[in-house]
Design goal:
Blueprint lengths: L2 H29 L9 H23 L5 H18 L6
Length: 92
Amino acid sequence: MSPFDLLIHLLNFAAPAMGMAVLMLGLTWVLNRKRPLDGSAWVQIAVNFGVGLIVMCLGLWIFGRDGTMATYGALVFGVATSQWVINKSWRN
């Protein structure tokens, strides 16, 4: 495998985590217009992306391959939970 192919594989592995991080921030902004976002948008994206990558790596380790629906379900749950914690939504 060439270095370019390895880069493409790694980017495709990380793409769902990045997509969920950006999508979660957008949904938070749309659904909570009355309340301003806590902290910087870039920090929230970075934290959610990190959580998403951890979940994707755990799914690869547990199932032996990436892209399983259980991993994607855990990705949604993990990123949503981290966004909930970042915004301190339990205080509402």
